[in-house]
Amino acid sequence: MKTMKTMKTFVMIFILSTFMLNGQSKKGMDTKENYPTTYNTIDVDGLDIFYREAGPKNAPTLILLHGYPTSSHMFRNLIKDLSSEYHLIAPDYPGYGRSEQPAMKDFDYTFENMSIVIEKLLVKLNIERYSLYLMDYGAPIGYRIFEKHPERVQSFIVQNGNAYEEGLKAFWNPLRTYWNDYTVANGKPLEGFHALEGLKWQYTHGVKDISKISPDNWHIDLQHLSRPENNEIQLAMFYDYRTNVSLYPKWQKLFRKYQPPTLIVWGKNDIIFPADGAYPYKRDLKNVEFHLLDTGHFALEEKGEDIANYISKFLKKHVKK
Q: Which residue among 68, 88, 242, 306 sits deepest, i.e. has the most Cβ atoms within 10 Å of its Cβ?
């Protein structure tokens, strides 16, 4: 009996010692500091603008510009994945997410105005040098900022963000009709994109495993899309998108002139902004890292870890504080 007790004691000591050593080993390997996300609201020209922020402020800064019809919520996981290495800012545009929604009589809902608000936000936050994550609506907003201040932009990360006519396929025909004939009748079919089923479709079309896509996404989007007058705001933005297309040649000329290092991480199954719009970047930019991912429009939902890894390696290579 004494021998058995001695053996049991020895086994317990061995197990505890091994557990403690393994814990110390893992702790020693994990040298990255965890930075929590903070949730902030700041006054920009009389508007309450919400933004998420994480990471050390002395690290290279990455500005995360969200698409339609969502908000900075789309970057929640990417922020966690990158916050130990980079300073991240993800704002909500006026009328989206948790930012203020001014009445349409008081604010012109255009891509130019959105870019002005984000530019002024960066000034208020004393951010002078940064990389831009450009997705969907975030692309024309970011490229407008780049157009005004190319010297401030250190690199692009482009994820299903268009700057070429080749990227506007048949999906855009109803919007072209709206641009050419700005009527209530032509706008009505477009309202389905920000109805519940339209939102769900945008998140799930082209993904490989729908079970990995959280329904929280489209229900959270509905919180701002259901506000009074927001439907009209979205239609105004749809109509104003035509102004982006006319600027494509100008932006392409700036790409050729300034040559920002560019990472393309594109959901290749997206029919809103298909991969046809990804390839032309190679025409104008010499320093391009190019990845087509087997997923849909909101690529971060299914390929977020892959994208985070690509970004981390890319920024380490090309961007210094």
A: 88
From the list 73, 149, 297, 318, the catalytic residue is: 297
Residues in the chain: 321
Nearest CA among 271, 251, 22 for reference residue 167 = 271
Q: Which residue has the higher pLDDT, 49 or 3?
A: 49
Rounded to an integer, what distance in angstroms lies between the CA atom of residue 115 and that of residue 111?
6
Let me know the angle formed at the C-alpha of 110 by 297 and 167, rounded to the nearest 5 degrees. 35
pLDDT of the residue at 14: 40
CATH of domain 37-318: 3.40.50.1820
For the chain, give the mean pLDDT: 92
Residue 241 pLDDT greater than 90, yes or no: yes
Helix (H) or strand (E) holding 266: strand 262-267
Average pLDDT of the residues in 13-17:
40
Which backbone phi and psi does 134 adopt, to 5 degrees?
-115, 110
Model-level pTM?
Answer: 0.90
b/e for 241-266, b at 16 or more Cβ within 10 A?
beebbebbeebbebbeeeebbbbbbb
- Integer Cα distance of 111 and 91 in angstroms: 15
* Predicted confidence band of residue 321 (pLDDT cuts 50, 70, 90): confident
Domain positions in the chain = 37-318
| Contact (CB, 8 A) for 307 and 281 | no
Running DSSP on this structure, what letter comes out for residue 60? Answer: P
